[in-house]
Design goal:
The complex is a heterodimer. By secondary structure, chain A is mainly α. Chain A is built from 7 helices and no strands. Classes of the chains: A mainly alpha, B mainly alpha. At the A-B interface, helix 4, helix 5 and helix 6 of A face helix 12, helix 13, helix 14 and helix 23 of B.
């Protein structure tokens, strides 16, 4: 049955094991990846999609992506560049994907989904196109397709 | 006297008042303020001694307002300060002072060195020597309402995101609400989880609250730059919003100097008492805890420590609430050395993090925080200031320390019992 709301989306994500969560999270990040032009993030996402990715590779990717996340914070008092800020949230979403299993108390796919939506919100603020975006619906479709692939 | 000399002297003469005069007369040159300043302790350079940072002010005071100083000037024994010299002092007044107040608190004669720095900043701002980054932030605050250029549509976008994420309503312009919540631009841009946490906490506590469309921003860069007129404009905006909405309490966010500006300096700036209370979010959360309105479950398993934001703890007097809240969700909470009132600054407050010229010295100063953390070896660092949070993250990244940094309000929200 198609997913149409966050309650069903969250319930479906809760059924996934950690590997499936990583795959779903990576797919959510890919949907907004163009908002963060950084090789460290795209490489990490490509790596996560490989079956059998090891914990040491994840830890290494985690360090690299965390650096991008920190670099892309808007510092206090600096003029907000919402497009650049979208990159921060893409990196944050990617960080959820590569977080080592023993450091992941929550559902990493849900966390990645929320950060990816924030990235899209930043994009809409940057473009002045209003505050509505359809990233949630896009994520529902992505998850539905993954579950049925 | 040349025009350049005369201008600098005239401007500094204007900012010297009775407290400044008494502080210069009281200074016993003991050097304790040097040992209290992380820019001095971590660089070892005596030019960063706090009282030395206000040397241009001292020279003008002595030459213009003391008998011996006037005679010395008349005989050509002392040199008047020039505009160029004042400009060169920017590094000491803006780049290497976060106005953290540690120097003030250790001064044995009670000199408020932060006040002196602020007065010198006021003079430097008038003379056109404030850093571009801080000037820009202040200009945006006055013109747009936010130092980082955040406008209402961006706030509404965040509200929409949070409402979708939490399933809760984030009220805007709700007249008669008990609490009006202020945000810092940093929270709107970098940490939307703060507003999300507020929505969850208020829901559980059963309290009415609102954001204000004309006064959502708490940050006051007029205070940072040292221009009281601008600081007054920014405070007035909040006062008008709170009085229009008839709220009982305004909540200052997880931002250090915003609390100083609205809680401690606000009524003086506008020249009258507020018709509402101002509390820091940590104070409000602790009140909820004490009243049994904050129900949490579970404990953080990791070893946690807390970084006290200077303007909230030392300058703001909020020290115990954060500790009560930490103990509520942690059984392994360890204090760094010099906690609470004597905490060491992150190194990025007082406009320093908005100032590109200050980056190098800021990272040198961060070695103090690094040493404190190395000593207690926490698994997670908790704080209650969005600016501290980013400065800490940048410092940890620079020194390759793998340590997550989280906001306390957000951590409390994660432990709320779900009804």
């Amino acid at each position: 049955m198609p997913i149409n709301n966050d309650a069903d989306f969250k319930a479906a994500l809760a059924e996934l094991d950690i590997h499936q969560q990583r795959r779903a999270a990576a797919a959510f990040v890919e949907s907004v990846l163009h908002l963060c032009q950084d090789m460290r993030v795209s490489s990490a996402i490509a790596m996560v999609k490989h079956p059998g990715v090891g914990e040491s590779e994840l830890a290494s990717a985690y360090q690299a992506v965390n650096s991008v996340r920190v670099e892309r914070f808007t510092q206090c008092g600096k003029e907000a560049d919402w497009r650049s800020q979208a990159g921060h949230f893409v990196a944050k979403a990617a960080l959820s994907c590569v977080r080592p299993a023993d450091e992941s108390p929550g559902n990493i796919a849900w966390e990645a989904a929320m950060s990816a939506r924030m990235a899209r919100t930043c994009e809409s603020v940057a473009e002045g196109t209003g505050t509505d975006n359809h990233e949630a619906e896009t994520q529902y479709r992505i998850l539905y397709d993954l579950l049925n692939s | 006297m040349s025009a350049s000399l005369s201008r600098a002297v005239d401007i500094l003469k204007e900012v010297i008042d009775a407290p400044i005069a008494s502080y210069f007369n009281s200074c016993v040159h003991c050097g304790l303020c040097a040992e209290a300043c992380l820019f001095y302790t971590e660089s070892g350079d005596p030019k960063y001694t706090p009282i030395h940072k206000v040397e241009p002010l001292r020279r003008v005071y002595e030459q213009e307002y003391t008998l011996l100083g006037r005679i010395g000037k008349w005989l050509g024994l002392s040199k008047p300060i020039s505009d160029e010299e004042l400009g060169n002092w920017r590094e000491l007044v803006y780049d290497s002072c976060t106005m953290c107040g540690r120097c003030t608190i250790v001064c044995p004669v009670g000199n408020d060195i932060v006040y002196m720095v602020r007065k010198l900043r006021e003079g430097m701002a008038i003379a056109g020597h404030a850093p571009d980054g801080v000037v820009g932030a202040t200009k945006r605050t006055v013109e747009i309402g936010s130092p980082m250029g955040v406008k209402l549509p961006a706030v509404k976008a965040q509200i929409g995101h949070i409402e979708a994420e939490t399933g809760l309503t984030v009220p805007l312009d709700q007249e008669g609400a008990e609490y009006m919540v202020l945000l810092s631009s940093m929270e709107i841009i970098n940490f939307p989880e703060y507003l999300s946490a507020i929505a969850k906490i208020m829901k559980q506590a059963g309290k009415t609250w609102t954001l204000c469309s004309t006064a959502f921003e708490a940050t006051n860069s007029g205070i940072q730059i040292g221009v009281s007129d601008l600081a007054k404009v920014i405070v007035s905006r909040i006062v008008e919003g709170a009085e229009r909405l008839k709220v009982k309490t305004v909540i200052s966010p997880e931002c250090g100097h915003a609390f100083t500006a609205i809680r401690w300096e606000g009524p003086n700036l506008i020249g009258r008492p507020f018709g509402f209370k101002v509390k820091h979010i940590l104070e409000v959360l602790d009140e909820f805890r004490a009243a049994g309105l904050l129900k949490t479950e579970g404990f953080e398993e990791e070893r946690l420590t807390f970084h006290d934001p200077c303007q909230i703890a030392r300058r703001g007097g909020v020290i115990e609430p954060q500790r009560n809240l930490m103990r509520m969700v942690s059984k392994n909470f360890v204090e760094m050395s010099d906690p609470g009132k004597y905490n060491w600054c992150c190194g990025g407050g007082g406009g320093v993090s908005a100032n590109d010229d200050a980056e190098e010295i800021r990272l040198i100063a961060f070695k103090r925080k690094k040493a404190q953390l190395d000593e207690v070896k926490p698994d997670k660092l908790v704080t209650a200031c969005a600016n501290c949070r980013i400065v800490l993250e940048e410092g940890l990244e620079h020194y390759q320390m793998d340590l997550p940094v989280v906001g306390l309000t957000e951590m409390i929200a994660e432990h709320l019992v779900e009804k």
